[in-house]
Design goal:
single chain, 31 strands, Immunoglobulin-like, 4 domains, 36% strand, five-stranded antiparallel sheet, 11 helices, alpha+beta, 616 residues
Length: 616
């Protein structure tokens, strides 16, 4: 009976401690998956977060794979990592705990109404598998609306002809007092979606600049602050076409109060310090738009593609011209459309005239009311015979959607009186053709010289100044290379000098502290010793010891070839310094001198280990 009691009291706890020892060495890992919401509407963004919490760093941790599903689409994924540590001092001994959190985000959007189960995610690491619990997401048939924000899309006309321009407006409006933030990058995402959806059936042109304007407006009797994106859209295909809903993600700002366990401090200081502001991502969707795009009726021969309001005019610079000289014929087209839809004008047959290729200029004006284009044509027309003649009437047609018919506008005819030229001595003068004038132009060579022509040396390389300056670029290149090499060597020598002086400086500082240690308290001496040790390690090995964990410092010293047998005594000394500095560790007679001697001993061991590795 006594033997059984001894086993239960002493042997059993020892066995349990031995069995639990590997579990304490292995990292404690917790894996969970959650969503920012479980109720949404089709197309609304849901953020699913997979969180891995570990007591140690997990190397080569991969993001848990998300299997494909017919119920939702994955918009994008992201991940981040953060680390927190806490220090507790119990009975003069310091205990440090580390918590590393790995976060993986999945941004998904439901495809259709109904309910579906978000699958279980699997995480595999270090030969062990972790699985999350599946959960249900409900997708409502109607959009979940927020009365503080309104997203809509509308067009100037929804019954159009192919080639007819109208204005498409995407508007995001919110109430002035609403706690809502509209991120800048979401506007570009909305623009991309609009251009992708509308670009299948329309020619889309942006009518806004880099800065987005804001104006106050009233919608359904309420005041809103509205932001608008305007587009010019022109149908390129006929039939019934649709522009799908455009989602817009915004941030709903919520005030978070500071939580305290003490009701007195919570009531007084909680209101004084306030809390943080949490930006919760939300998605609002616009309405969809449908259009009826009709084909144009059969067109006349003078139609070149312009649909919408348009104007045409023509003029000549003079009505009387000597034989052999040109008349300038100017034409101008204006239309509420793109340059490609305005087309070109067709001149009638000009018998008895030599017509040159026109000089064409196109001007495009992009405003909130749409795109307008102006084209000017400048023809050079040379009459070939003297006498009374005329440039015939020039006609141009466009389609007017308001009357559902083609409209033809014309200018002319333009009468011309061709008189005898100055050099016309023969009854039938021959004028140069366009090709002959072009060839004559190629033969003309213009010679331009300065006002004074100075004599120049026929052989500049024989000039003494040239001989002196010729090798100068080579000398500069060699000097620059040598200077750069010297600066590199100097930087390397400076770093080596700092490493070589690190031990001498540390030993000198330790000696001064040892001489004065009897006059100082151990906690003050411990603080000075910690600073000297951190400075020595930083200068000698290039390691930032301040703030590093025990494992990180061990890995860094091991990379410099220091033996692992040295780490235990080194870390024990650091913990002893921390106990004196932060925990008020008990110190007997001569404790400060003992700390200084131990620090001196550790510096010497580090130097021997470093020099031994260098000798090898």
């Amino acid at each position: 009976m006594a033997g059984g009691a001894f086993f239960v009291r002493y042997t059993l706890p020892l066995l349990l401690a031995v069995l639990c020892l590997p579990a304490s060495v292995r990292a404690n890992v917790q894996f969970s998956v959650s969503a920012d919401r479980t109720k949404a509407s089709p197309g609304e963004q849901i953020v699913v977060t997979a969180k891995v919490v570990s007591s140690k760093r997990l190397d080569n941790l991969q993001q848990p794979p998300l299997p494909g599903s017919e119920h939702f689409s994955v918009i994008r994924t992201s991940q981040n990592q953060n680390q927190s540590q806490s220090v507790q001092i119990i009975n003069g001994r310091m205990q440090r705990s580390i918590e590393i959190t790995y976060t993986f985000h999945y941004f998904i959007a439901p495809k259709k109404a109904g309910s579906f189960t978000f699958p279980s995610l699997t995480l595999s690491h270090d030969g062990k598998t972790y699985r999350s619990k599946p959960f249900t997401i409900t997708v409502a048939r109607e959009l979940v609306s927020n009365p503080d924000i309104l997203v809509r899309m509308y067009a100037g006309k929804r019954r159009l002809y192919v080639g007819e321009q109208t204005i498409l407006t995407f508007e995001v409006a919110h109430k002035p007092q609403a706690s809502i933030n509209l991120p800048d990058h979401e506007w570009m995402d909305a623009v991309r979606r609009i251009e992708e959806n509308a670009g299948k059936h329309f020619a889309v042109t942006r009518l806004f600049g880099n800065r987005l304007g804001r104006e106050q407006t009233r919608i359904d009797g309420e005041t809103y602050l509205a932001y608008r994106l305007r587009f010019s859209i022109i149908p390129v295909t006929s039939g019934n076409v649709n522009i799908a809903r455009i989602p817009y993600e915004y941030r709903e700002l919520r005030q978070q109060s500071r939580r305290r366990v003490d009701p007195f401090f919570d009531g007084f200081f909680g209101d004084f310090f306030g809390g943080g502001v949490q930006a919760i991502p939300k998605t609002a969707q616009s309405n969809a738009l449908s259009f009826e795009c009709r084909s144009l009726p059969p067109a006349p021969s003078t139609f070149t593609g312009t649909v919408g309001s348009a104007r045409f005019r023509a003029q000549v610079n003079r009505n009387e011209v000597p034989a052999g000289e040109a008349v300038t014929l100017k034409l101008e087209l204006r239309g509420q459309t793109r340059p490609g839809n305005l087309g070109d004008i067709k001149l009638p047959e000009l018998n008895g005239f030599e017509v040159f290729t026109p000089e064409v200029h196109t001007y495009v004006d992009t405003a909130e009311t749409g795109i307008s284009t102006r084209k000017t044509y400048k023809y050079l027309v040379i009459p070939q015979q003297k006498g009374e003649t005329s440039i015939p009437e020039i006609a141009w047609s466009y389609f007017d959607p308001s009357s559902n018919s083609y409209q033809t506008v014309s200018a002319g005819p333009f009468p011309l009186k061709v008189t005898k030229g100055a050099e016309d001595s023969r009854p039938q003068a021959r004028y140069l053709t366009r090709e002959e004038i072009r060839e004559v132009g190629r033969d003309i060579r213009y010679i331009k010289t300065p006002s004074t022509v100075t004599a120049r040396t026929p052989a500049p390389h024989r000039n003494p100044l040239f001989i002196i300056l010729f090798p100068l670029p080579l000398f500069l290149a060699v000097f620059s290379t040598l200077y750069k090499f010297q600066m590199t060597r100097r930087a390397e020598n400076r770093a080596q000098s700092v490493r070589n002086r690190a031990a001498r400086r540390a030993i000198g500082d330790l000696g001064r502290i040892s001489n004065k240690s009897s006059q100082q308290k151990p906690d003050a001496v411990a603080g000075q010793l910690a600073g000297i040790m951190n400075t020595y390690i930083a200068n000698r090995f290039g390691i930032a010891a301040t703030g590093a964990t025990r494992e990180e410092l061990s890995h860094a010293l091991a990379r410099h070839g220091l033996p692992e047998t040295f780490f235990d005594s080194f870390h024990a000394f650091n913990e002893r310094l921390d106990a004196y500095r932060f925990g008020g560790g008990a110190a007997g007679q001569g404790s400060a001198e003992e700390l200084a001697r131990q620090a001196h001993h550790i510096v010497e061991e580090l130097e021997r280990a470093a020099k031994g590795r260098k000798a090898k």
